[in-house]
Each structure stands twice: as C-alpha cells, then as structure tokens.
Amino acid sequence: METPSPAQITGATAAEISASIRGLVERGELAPGDLLPPVRALAEQLGVNRNTAVAAYKRLARDGAVIAQGRAGTRIAGTRTAAQEGFADAAALAALAPDVPAGTLRDLGTGNPDPALIPDLTPALAGAVGRPVLYGEPVIDPGFAAWARGWVAPVVPDGEAAHLTLTSGAVDAIERLLDQALVRGDAVALEDPCFLASIQTVRHAGYRALPVPVDAEGMTPVGLRAALEAGARAVVLTPRAQNPTGVSLSARRAEELRAVLEDHPYVLVIEDDYYSLLARAPFRSVVGPGHRRWALVRSVSKFLGPDLCLAVVASDGETADRLALRLSPGTTWVSHLLQRLAHGVLREDGARALIERAGDRYAARNAQVAALLREVGAEVAAADGMSLWVGLPRPAGEVAAQLARRGWRVRTGDEFRLAPDAEPSRHLRVTVHGLGDQEAERFATDLGAAVEPDASEAG
Questions:
Q1: Mind listing the pLDDT tens digit for each residue in 171-185?
Q2: CA–CA separation, 229 and 433 (whole Å)
Q3: CA distance linking residue 11 with residue 3, whole number of Å
Q4: Mapping DSSP to helix (H, G, I), strand (E, B) and coil, where does residue 402 land?
Q5: pTM given for the model
Q6: Which among 23, 51, 154, 432 is placed 20 to 30 Å from 333, CA to CA?
Q7: Where are the domain boundaries for CATH 1.10.10.10 in the chain?
Q8: Please, are residues 164 and 312 in contact by the beta-carbon 8 Å criterion?
Q9: Which of these CATH numbers, 2.30.29.30, 3.90.78.10, 3.90.1150.10, 3.30.1370.10, describes 90-115+351-458?
C-alpha cells in the first residue's frame, strides 16, 4: 500500500488546512500525484474533527487542487488542460480508448454552429469601416446601441432604462461580472451539469462553486435555495438551451426560482442567454422587479460565428458602474469595427431570415436524431441548443470508448460536472446537426451496440 506524503500539514480549520496544503504545493514539498493522508489520519494528526478534514479536502477538490479517488485516496492534482468548447478532449479520449487514433474519428463533441447557417459578413464589411475611434469616445457605437437596446429592453426589469455594457463575448462578460462582485473564496451557485467555460472561470478565480442540480425544467428551486443558504453571493444560470442539457426554463420553474430569489435581492443573478435568436423556447427570466443586482448576457457568437466576439450586458445601474470599473484598467470598449459589423449584418432582412432558419434547423435535427437514439435505448429529449444530452444505462466513459472503436468521438458528461467525487456520469453530449440522414442512423445503431452490457467484450 502506498505511503502518504510526509509533508507537514498544519491548521485547525478547513480553510487553514486547505491553505497549508496549497502552500506545500507552491513550495514544492507536495508534487502532482502525491497521496495525502486519509481523512481520519489527518484529523488525528491535527487534533481536529473528522468533518473539518473532510471539508478541507472538499474545498481543495472544488478548486481543482486535489483529485478525490474514493478508496484510492486523495492526490495532489497536476496541471491539466482545461476542457473547452469546439472540440472533444483528446486526452480524455486517449485515456478511454488508447488504441484509437483521435484524428480518424467523426467528431460529435464540438458544440459548434454550422458554418453554412452563419450569415455572410462580407456585405457588411464596407459599412463597418468608418472614421477612427479615439480614446474618450462613447464605448458603444450609436447604431449598435439602438439595436441592442431594442433586443434586451422588452425582457429586463428596467426596460429601456437598463444600462448597457459590451464585452468580448459571453464568457468575458461572466468573468468580469463575477470579478466586480466577488473576492477569492466567495461562493457562486452554478448549474450542475455546467457550461465548461463557467466551470473554468470559477475555478481559476478561486471562487467556491456550489452545484445546483438541473432537471427537465431547469435549475431546481430546492438546489438554488440550498446554495443561497450556504452563502452564494452570485448565481449563474441559463434560461434556455442550457449547455450541456439543452433544457429551457418552464414558466412554472421560472416563477419558483423568482420566489426563492425574493429573499436574496442583493445576490448577483447572471442570466446567460447565449442562444437567444436561435432559441425556439421563449425567454423566461428569474429576476423579479424588486431584485437589486442582476445582469442579462446575450452573445452573437452562436448565430454570427464564434470569431465575432461580442456580447451585450444589460444590468442594473450599480452592476453596470462596477462592470465599467472592471473594464477600465484595459481597453474600455469592444472594437467599434466589430460593433458596426454585427449591426450591419443584423439589420439585413436576409441575415435575420437565415438566423431564423438556423434555429429551426438545429431544433429539427435534434428532434430527428433524438428519436433515433430513443429507439436504441437512450434517454434523450429533443431540447434546444447545439447538442443533445444523451442518458445511458451504463457509465458514459465505457460507451464513449466503444463509440471511438466504431469511429465516433463524443464528450462524456464527466467533463461538465461540478461535484468532483460523484459517480461516473451516465450521459453523453453530442452535436448532431451536421449529420446526414445515413450518418445519423449509423450513429444510432453504433450507440445501441455500445450500450449493450457485453459491448466491452464484443468491442
């Protein structure tokens, strides 16, 4: 049996113990892969309650500093490549199926829009070029500001009086919104499973992620209440096309969440409506009229392309002022060229019609493939969004390995979870809108074979 690291851990509280372990890592006295003492042994060594040691390890696990392996113990985590949108994790695939060359697989893990359904930016380029913008000028181009206000005013508490800010995409907006409201160690309520970028944002900033389960109607009221009672100072949720599940808030659920938030009017609520113009579900806000700290984030990336990094943030006045201060150390505005380009495209009837057709196409293809997958024993709803969340009768890692041997690259639900010591996920996230009819049928057939109990022997 392996002997735990002899490094001297100190502390009387969970915070002190976790800080001690972090210090030992920073000084090189603990290295990636080192085994930490069992909880009971550490508690006896330090003279603290066992629950205190458990809390310290959980804190470190939430921050990604250690890896909890159940009976195998808790180890110091190494530097790892963060899972990202746009491609499935090659390292994760290699661990599951080391005998399969990743470059030979049909990639269903991207989460990308279809390039054929993104409007051509070329006609708007000429109109985007104008006189140079200098320091001290308004940060929002007047034409784009008018369009953006009409986009968000009907759905936010302050309507036309809402304050507008621009950021370099939705991820940038959420990172800056959290930064202006929180300090390291503060707690954030996040959906579980969660959008990859939100997981990384919270982890890298040193916030504590409080997982709130997501069911078929969205973030659960019981989970949100528990997170708020545990000290969450901010909530990040997706009102529709939640990534990775595709779930959109029902009217009932939005009302229930508003009721929970009524008792916490100063908690910052960030609604990430990233799918916006592509969504087939209606927008339902959880922000009530009396809520004091809120922000709605809408990005153009899913319908104008990820390279057009631009997001509109509508918020209350105090949040807008703090966000402006957070932006002030660097360039205080998003390129006016990008703003004019986005505005030029979005005011074209043809472009708006293509965006509408794209939303219909994604929804229809999701429904078609979901029906095929249900026929082979998967649990999957035809939800909104770029991908499907596929429920499985066996661990997702095993199914992903079998699919790789059949030519498919997918993402397992393990990448999207906040709880580090949970059981192996039984979900896949697959992006299927690029599949032709025959490909979709072949994928369904291969998935059906991969979920069979004896698939590992047959593979």
A1: 999 999 999 999 888
A2: 40
A3: 21
A4: helix
A5: 0.83
A6: 154
A7: 14-76
A8: yes
A9: 3.90.1150.10
pLDDT of residue 459: 47
Residue 106 CB-density burial (10 A; 0-12 exposed, 13-18 middle, 19+ buried): middle
pLDDT 10s digits, 158-217: 899 999 999 999 999 999 999 999 988 899 999 999 999 999 899 888 888 999 999 999
Q: In the prediction, which pLDDT does 81 show?
A: 52
Out of 3.40.50.20, 3.40.718.10, 3.40.640.10, 1.10.510.10, select the CATH number for domain 123-347: 3.40.640.10
Q: May I ask the CATH class of domain 14-76? A: mainly alpha
Phi and psi based region of residue 331 (left: phi greater than 0; alpha: psi -120 to 50; beta: remaining): beta
**34 contacts 6 by C-beta, under 8 angstroms:** no
Split at pLDDT 50, 70, 90, the class of 82 is: low
Q: Is the pLDDT of residue 227 over 80?
A: yes
Give CATH 3.40.640.10 domain extents, the chain. Answer: 123-347
